[in-house]
Write a structure and sequence with these properties.
Blueprint (H helix, E strand, L loop, with lengths): L5 H5 L5 H6 L1 H12 L8 E6 L5 E7 L5 H15 L4 E15 L2 E14 L8 H4 L18 H7 L4 E3 L5 E4 L18 H4 E5 L6 H6 L5 E5 L3 H17 L14 E8 L6 E7 L4 H6 L12 H50 L2 H8 L7 E12 L3 H4 L5 H21 L3 E6 L2 E6 L8 H16 L14 E14 L5 E5 L1 H11 L6 E4 H10 L2 E11 L3 E11 L4 H5 L13 H16 L16
Parallel strand pairs: 14-16
Antiparallel strand pairs: 1-2, 2-4, 3-4, 5-6, 5-10, 7-8, 8-9, 9-10, 11-13, 11-14, 12-13, 14-15, 16-18, 17-18
């Protein structure tokens, strides 16, 4: 009762006798309907004594449990019916019963049940419901002919004390061969007992009169016809052998046994044991085969609705699982899209776009733009395979990307061999020029690690840096790009294009901003002509006195081969690149196309 069965237990009967008489059906419901188990529970049968006490017959296939039964029944009487009872054992026997599954020991214990409440007038007031109410003309015999009875109860069976057939309902002829329905046929020739698991004889049926009986037809009319046909075929061929035949669907009946007034005959009131329309169709039946008063009709219809709901729920679960898979795939695609968006745009701008915010174009008073390229890229192209060119640029730009992320600047874009970077955008930083200068030093170093495809010489990188005002914003919606506009971009590109390989060229503005927050060594190159600006002062960046090369590129120094700050090695590389630039090649005057955004 503590696990939720109390309401069902209290609703079974208003008195203890009715409760005990209906325990068998409750066990059947719990075993076969709730838990779908094929367990064999105990059986209880009560007899009312003249003094109002009860004689309880307890049958079980598990000997020795009767003390537990006595304690449980006392507790049920107290908690459900609010009475105190005593149970005295007046008899206990055991016998061996031969069943189809083997021999089994069956125990029969008889209890005398009395109430202990002295205030009650008699035992019967609390243990039984009392005599039935009087009905006028109840002593008159109500006549009903056999045909009417067989129509009202189309599946009933009446048997004598030897369990031989006396009468059946009219519908059984559709499921049992007619020759087996003759009066006097032993019931065991027609049916096998599924439940309760007892020998099928008159005494055992009376002992288990309160149990739910499930009988199954042994031979259907279809089986009989096939057997007859195969016997005839066997006789025609002269083989004398009987071929195996397929059994049809054998109907199950579920109901209760009742002892008739003469105490010599039993009636089995039952219904087909079917629970769904497909199962009904298997037996060649329709709902009209059951009378309107039979609750089996409602059970089939309700169960069909339940099966439909289950099918719908299964489909919904399948759809939900499919939606979950699609949602996971969508989330994975969303993450990929967000990763691509973060690669294409600054993180803060990408976050705003993913949140559905509108990005306004913005003017920045001061920022630093850097262009870098491979000055002899056009000379390398004619002598190299396309895949080698792509591999070389991938290697070079991968190294540049690492520096950009490490120093927290932003890569605007790459066009051909040109690589554009900006500092101080979109987050404004006072050290924007210092950060770009450190990246430039790292690019010179990393460029030396990438070799040209044909002559296997280190790549020479040319860099131009300029600081000034910039307008920046997101262009396009389907493929958004973060673009820079203004004079500063054009000047930085021109400085890079007019520079020398292996050198970092800085405008005067970039030089001033870099020395304000950082510590660098510059050398004055002189004035060069910049288209649209005229002559401008240009400075060459040599080193940072604040950071070593190893710190800038985040590489470990070989203490046996490298200097402490690494700038001697960087300067050697510059000198080598400058010497290589003076060697005459047939394509020495060709220059690469740089990205120019204005």
């Amino acid at each position: 009762m503590e696990i939720g069965w109390d309401e069902l237990v209290r609703s079974m009967s208003p008195d203890l006798k009715g409760f005990l008489d209906n325990l068998d059906s409750l066990h059947y419901f719990i075993d076969h309907v709730v838990y779908k188990a094929n367990l064999r529970g105990p059986s209880f049968r009560c007899e009312e004594n003249p003094d109002g006490s009860l004689t309880l017959h307890y049958f079980t296939g598990r000997p020795g449990l009767y003390p537990i039964v006595r304690g449980v029944l006392r507790e049920v009487a107290r908690r459900v019916f609010n009475i105190d009872i005593s149970l005295t054992i007046t008899g206990r026997t055991q016998r061996s019963v031969q069943m189809a599954s083997g021999e089994r020991t069956e125990e029969h214990v008889i209890f005398l049940v009395k109430t202990l409440d002295q205030n009650r007038e008699s035992n019967s007031d609390s243990l039984t419901a009392g005599p039935p109410p009087s009905i006028e003309n109840f002593d008159q015999t109500l006549k009903m002919n056999a045909a009417e009875f067989c129509t009202a109860l189309p599946y009933h069976i009446i048997m004598d004390e030897h369990c031989r057939l006396l009468q059946t309902g009219k519908e059984l002829a559709n499921h049992v061969p007619k020759e087996l329905l003759a009066v006097g046929t032993p019931i065991m020739r027609i049916f096998e007992v599924n439940r309760p698991q007892i020998p099928f004889d008159f005494d055992n049926i009376c002992n288990f009169i309160n149990a739910v009986f499930v009988l199954q037809v042994k031979t259907s009319p279809t089986d009989m016809r096939k057997q007859r046909e195969e016997t005839e075929n066997s006789d025609d061929t002269g083989t004398g052998a009987s071929a195996a035949f397929h059994h049809g669907h054998h109907l199950k009946l579920k109901g209760q046994m009742m002892l008739l007034s003469n105490s010599k005959n039993l009636i089995y009131i039952c219904s087909p044991y079917v629970t769904s329309i497909p199962e009904l169709m298997q037996f060649g039946m329709r709902l009209t085969a059951m009378p309107l008063h039979d609750a089996t009709r409602d059970l089939i219809l309700l169960n069909q609705q339940r099966l439909t709901d289950v099918e719908v729920n299964l489909q919904l679960e399948a759809n939900n699982e499919q939606l979950e898979v699609l949602a996971k795939d969508l989330e994975a695609e969303k993450q990929k899209t967000e990763m691509i968006l973060r690669d294409m745009l600054p993180l803060s701008i990408a976050t705003q776009l993913m949140n559905g915010e509108h990005i306004e174009a913005r003017e920045y008073e001061q920022a630093t733009v850097m262009f870098s390229d491979v000055p002899n890229f056009q000379s390398i192209l004619p002598h190299s395979q396309p895949k080698d060119i792509v591999q070389m640029l991938n290697d070079l730009f991968h190294r540049f990307d690492r520096l950009v992320v490490m120093h927290k600047v932003y890569k605007v874009e790459t066009v051909g061999d040109s690589y554009m970077t900006v500092g101080g955008i979109p987050e404004q930083l006072a050290e924007h020029a210092e950060m770009i200068c450190h990246v430039a030093i790292g690019m010179l170093w990393e460029g030396r690690s990438v070799l040209e495809p044909v002559n296997k010489k280190p790549i020479q990188v040319r860099i131009g840096i300029h600081s000034g005002p910039i307008v920046a914003g997101v262009v396009a919606l389907s493929m958004p790009r973060y673009c820079l506009f203004g004079d500063t971009v054009s000047v930085a590109s021109s400085i890079e294009m007019s520079g020398s390989p292996g050198k970092i060229h800085c405008s005067e503005k970039a030089y001033k901003f870099a020395t304000q927050t950082g510590r660098f060594d510059f050398t004055h190159r002189g004035r060069i002509f910049i288209k649209g600006k005229g002559e401008m002062e240009i400075y060459l960046l040599l080193r940072s006195t604040k950071k070593s090369v190893w710190e800038i590129v985040d590489r470990e120094r070989d203490i046996e081969k490298n200097t402490i700050d690494g700038y001697e090695e960087l300067e050697t590389g510059m000198s080598y690149a400058e010497q290589q630039h003076t060697i005459v090649h047939p394509y020495v005057n060709q220059t690469s196309k740089s990205c120019s955004i204005s």
